[in-house]
Amino acid sequence: ARRADEEYDYLFKIVLIGDSGVGKSNLLSRFTRNEFCLESKSTIGVEFATRTLKVLPLKVEWWMWTDLGWCGEMRFRKIEEEDVVVVGRQCLDYVEGRIIKSQIWDTAGQERYRAITSAYYRGALGALLVYDVTKPISFENVSRWLKELRDHADSNIVIMLIGNKTDLKHLRAVATEDAQSYAEREGLSFIETSALEATNVEKAFQMNLSEIYRIIS
Ligand code: GDP
Ligand code: MG
């Protein structure tokens, strides 16, 4: 069996950007360690975290992502009927697929001073641009982050807009439709997440990884 840290077919660097406090570090810890931290503390130390997944080609534009070495029920989604069909129990070592190591970079609080260096963006294939659905200013600043990306990152970088903290329903101040139409205008994909409740976090990262994979494969 392959070891998760040692062998992979592709390494994808993804950067997290957005205002301080929007939940970038918690999206990262939720995706890579399934952890969440309620205390607000500036990211210290961690430069990036990784997670290795196997991508299985199902249909032309649909892949299933699963943890490497995971054994158990495999679920395939039928696009036409939108239902999920369990096709059997299988050990993934025997299923053909590419192994993708995603290396997700987090800021160490530099976003507060807009002091992110171009080294941060270097080689990044994907970017998750995060705002807080309860903080309109963090949504207004998205365009500044987008400009920053367009100035410093590769022009082919796959950008995804993420509205985080959807669990704070009573505090919502940015409408889904507004962000959706902004994303469409700017050619970004868009999703809303809650790192706290683990809603759509997997999906957000996987959508970004899938888009990158589609471009490079
Ligand atoms: P960063 O500065 O963008 O890295 O943001 P952090 O991940 O450090 O999160 C800032 C604060 O928001 C922390 O107190 C987190 O616990 C909180 N937070 C992050 N994600 C969520 C979420 O999805 N829901 C809620 N309610 N709080 C969150
Ligand atoms: Mg942080």
Automatic annotation (TrEMBL):
It is found in: Cell membrane. The keyword Membrane applies. One of its GO terms (biological process) is vesicle-mediated transport. Its main location: membrane. InterPro entries: P-loop_NTPase, Rab_GTPases_membrane_traffic, Small_GTP-bd, Small_GTPase. This is Ras GTPase; Sigma-54 factor, interaction region. The gene is LOC102604566. CDD domains: Rab11_like. Belongs to the small GTPase superfamily. Rab family. GO terms for molecular function: GTP binding; GTPase activity. Pfam families: Ras. GO terms for cellular component: endosome; plasma membrane. Signal peptide: none annotated. Keywords: GTP-binding, Lipoprotein, Membrane, Nucleotide-binding, Prenylation. It is a lipid-anchor.
